[in-house]
Amino acid sequence: MLDSGAKKRILMVEDTASVAALYKSYLNPLDVEVEIASTGQEAIHHFSSGNFALVLLDLRLPDISGFDVLSEIRELHPDIPVVIMTAHGSIDAAVEAMRYGASDFLIKPCEADLLRVTVNNALKPKSKIGGQSPEGAYYGFIGHSVPMQAVYRVIDSAAPSKATVFITGESGTGKEVCAEAVHAASSRAKKPFVAINCAAIPKDLIESELFGHMKGAFTGAASEREGAAEMADGGTLFLDEICEMDLDLQSKLLRFIQTGTFQKVGSSKVKQVDVRFVCATNRDPWEEVMKGNFREDLYYRLHVIPLALPPLRERGEDVVEIAQSLLLMFAMEEGKDFRTFNAEVTGRLLSYEWPGNVRQLQNVIRNIVVLHNAREVTEQMLPPPLNSVSGVKIASTPVRATTQTAIAPSRDDNFSVASALLNQGAVTKADIEPLWLVEKRAIQIAIDACDGNIPQAAGLLEVSPSTIYRKLQSWQESQEKRN
Q1: What is the pLDDT of residues 367-425, one digit of tens each?
Q2: Is the domain of 158 the same as that of 282?
Q3: Cα(100)–Cα(94) distance, integer angstroms
Q4: What domain count does the chain have?
Q5: What is the percent of the chain with per-residue pLDDT over 70, rounded to a whole number?
Q6: Which GO terms describe its biological process (predicted)?
Q7: Which residues contact 197 (CB under 8 A, 6 or more apart)?
Q8: Do 94 and 180 lie in a common domain?
């Protein structure tokens, strides 16, 4: 253990010397001793021969994977905090690293203040997870599942800057709650948060809603009016369903973002404001660019920090936490006695697919509270479709069964079928493929079937997600060497 009076030692594993030197300089005010390792093997050697209070670990290293280094550190000292350092494109890998023992992660490049705060937090004795309340609340969000921890980390990283956050996610996942969290966690928290829904306002009125108008600018403009841009001065302007905005207005919005200036409808006077932009859509923004519905230059201006909200079906036990919170809140509003769910209802909540996400869950819990009264929610109180088997499961079960039947009667039978083909001479030595190629094809098929969700693909393949990440990285490096 370290002496209480000695400087705390930090091991920074970073293969880019200039980045390592910069981050080391950021940490000078903390009065810590930073040692740098440029490879995975060097990091393991340093760690095994010295006492460190914290490890800052880059996942992409020139010799071995950061996952291997993390695994070795966890075997030697399971209690020492490890903070993963990752670029935007590798956030999924960093989240996966948290499953396997990492305590936090930083998105590179990171600012000096954020690095110092993260290191300070990691070095503090852990009394409660992430400094949040035991209930897992975070700026309006409820839940501490791994996918949501990733969202919280991105918000923490993005909030201090003025960079635009672009939120994507299915309808009902809480995109406006996320935008409010970005605002609340920023230095602009005491200034206005103004939201404008680009899909809910008629095309001919949205410019007026955004920039305001002068008296008499159009029929019905009986007085001068401030727009959302002016009201949000000094604070945050949230543009919900941004992909629904008319193309003509998109060009004006682009100019507003670039210059911070705008003109009210019917006015020649230019006004300037200081606004932080947060945008959201339930569509794929790049697909909308390809379709011609969204300007490419506006996309690049807004899509600075992408933040994808996970659907409720991927948040595990968060479903029960959110439902419990809603139950107590609605029971208080309606003057009912509800306090909890029985085991059968909890099972239904966890197994249902929730196509409408948190919004659908809210409606279900309110329905229960309004129509019934008891201390415990039972299965008889559940409204459709929770009082029957999930429609998604009904639709998917026969397809899976058919697919499996077409391939083979069962996994165990695959071996007997293969043996029979070999005995019949249907398979020759020339037909045998290298194991790595068979493995690569199986992994790619699983990833494609899960729409790119690697943890889900790993579940189907019955392997660790980190195994897939390592293999993908290895194949990519091999391909680069061949090219």
Answers
A1: 999 999 998 999 999 998 888 644 334 334 333 333 333 333 444 445 555 555 556 66
A2: yes
A3: 10
A4: 4
A5: 81
A6: phosphorelay signal transduction system; regulation of DNA-templated transcription
A7: 240, 241
A8: no
Cα 281 to Cα 244: distance, rounded to the nearest angstrom: 9
Among 308, 327, 349, the domain boundary falls at 308
Which tokens is 51 given? Answer: 């006492």
Same domain flag for 193 and 264: yes
Question: Which structural domain range is residue 353 located in?
Answer: 315-381
CATH number at residue 88: 3.40.50.2300
Q: CATH number of the domain at 355, please.
A: 1.10.8.60
